[in-house]
Amino acid sequence: MYVTAGLMDPGLSDHHLVFTTSKKKKIARTINYVNCRNYRQFNERNFQFEIEQVDWDIICAIDDPNMAADLFRLMLLDIVNRHAPYRKLKLRENAPAWLNTDYLSHVDEREFWAKKCRKSPSDFNFSMKIDAIKRTQTFRDSLKRSYFQESLLNAEGDMKKTWQAIKKFWQGKSKKTDITELQNCTTNTEMANCPNKLFVEIGPKLADNIPVEKPMH
Question: CA–CA distance from 18 to each of 64, 197, 217 (Å)?
Answer without folding.
Answer: 80, 19, 54
